[in-house]
Request: fold
Amino acid sequence: MKKMKSYIKPSSFLIFIALAIFVALVPAVNQGYSMMILNLGLIYSIATYGLSVMLGLGGQLSFAAVSFMGLGAYFTANLCSGRLGFWVDTSLTLVLVLIISTVVAFLIGMILFRLSGTYFTFGTIGLVQVTWSFYLSYKPLFGGPDGISNVATLRIFGWSPVDYNQWFYVLVVIVLIVAILVERIRRSQLGRSLSAIRDNEIAAQTLGINVYMTKVIAFTIAGVLAALAGSLYAMHSQFVSSDMFTFERATSYIIMAMLGGVNNTFGVFVGSVLVTMLPEWLRGMQRYLQLIYGVGVILLMVFMPMGLAGLAGNFGKSIKRKLRSAAVKNAPAEKEDAK
Amino acid sequence: MNINTIVSLAVNGISMGMIYALMAMGLILLIRAIGVMNFAQGDLLMFGAFITCWLTVDLKLPLWAMIPLSIVCFVVVGIIFMFTAYWPLRNASYPAATVISTMGAAMALKEIATLIWGSLPRSMPPLMKNPATGKVAVLKIGSITIQWQFILTIIVGSVFIYLVFVLFDKLYAGRMMQAAAQDKYAAELLGIPTILTTMATYVIVVALASTGGYMIAPIFMVSNTLGTLQLRAFAGVVIGGFGNIKGAILGSLLIGVVEAFSTIQFSQYKDAVVFLVLIVFLLVRPQGLFGEKIADKA
Reply:
């Protein structure tokens, strides 16, 4: 490990500039419908951050994100639409969602992590199918095939976003908080333990890491983030239905994470927004969209398995190398060729 | 519930289980040969259903011409699938990459099918017709009626399972494929063309899944949503024990039967029942029916 020289690296500085431009420019350019799609991209990115913790740090392929999104979304929809005969304040609901999903995700994680590796992945597939068929069919709680409509919009201290542009700012703030949180986790003891488990479970055990508990905690974090995303989705769209929580959706979250770079906090954000916005940009080619998407995923895995972030990292490294070799005038030419 | 419904549900369940078993066998062959979980398995089945439907309904080919032609199609699909979704990634540094590329391939397959054959579900005439009335042929034993289609599915499924066992247990080619699967490097030293064995594996996998599609086409409509059936095959594989063909077949049959019988009580929640069985199995006996000793590859 290289010793960090200063706290603000040029790359993170660049990212902040890019983010500032993004936030300033996007609401001016987009309006209405395309703004809504972008907001959805931001919401998905919250769930994808959970996946980044699970898959990127822990190396555990989990499809369970949609189950917890559904938990958050339907919980919110039931409390905030008045269909049970009472209303709960939306910001209080958000807090409740966080608490409930922590408990549920922890318990389910404890059950599912009795399995390991591919078995765990299959367990999550089973979970997704079970929850989906309940979301689709159980009328009293999940509204059946019609879903639940008329969900109240978010209200924080008496203020609520009136249109998609105001929602955008709210979501940007939440995504930023989540991103910083994930970045902290990456550098914390938990993150390093997870990486150790990903790289070699037995070695991690010999280092005194409680493999089981660490995985369960990561699963809980992923579940809570997904539930938060689901809750925000319900308030943003004011409508919840089961087709948001299918297995196909779950694969698309994984693709979002892989596109941006599963181990890069900024990359996850870029990936989610790109995957969500792509259908809008390619509207003219609607017929071939899924085909392009599928082939694109294969090409992505062939040429840049670490996603856009990996590509950017390689690019940055090669520039740095060029700069260095230009600075060191008397560097022998063969050395550069060897690289 | 009388004996009548029990028998017909059991036959129905076993025949669906056979189709899951065809997919599950393909999954295991791929896991053993190249260590890749194939998330496109269901869409290969869908593609096979479309190909056979196209040959019989659109081109109106008789059975003797349709079977060899569809086999040629399966071989071509298998080889193309291998050289796009696996071959460029065989040396990938990130193990999840190959798995995710099969997810991309699944999407692409679905869309190619829609582009070629349209997005409307198509119906396929039953394979076994009553010659007098032209309707679906049924077998009547006393008060029990069973569609011949289900029986035919069970027969075809059993034949294919038998053929795969013959290939791997008796034939030299099968031994070569097994050797290449166990240790690619050593197999190459022995002069086994591993590229050919991998290709053969892919062709067999596609042929198995597509035959499942052909058998299932008259029961369901042929549409690009058939791919979701693959999740049942996954469940069958896990229940049977990873990497074990016998276990996967039994597991798939079990899933089929559970699914059929769960329609009596909770037809809306039949997915939930099937996957609850899977989760219970995972918790109680994670190594599957036939416990597998080799380490987790995929």
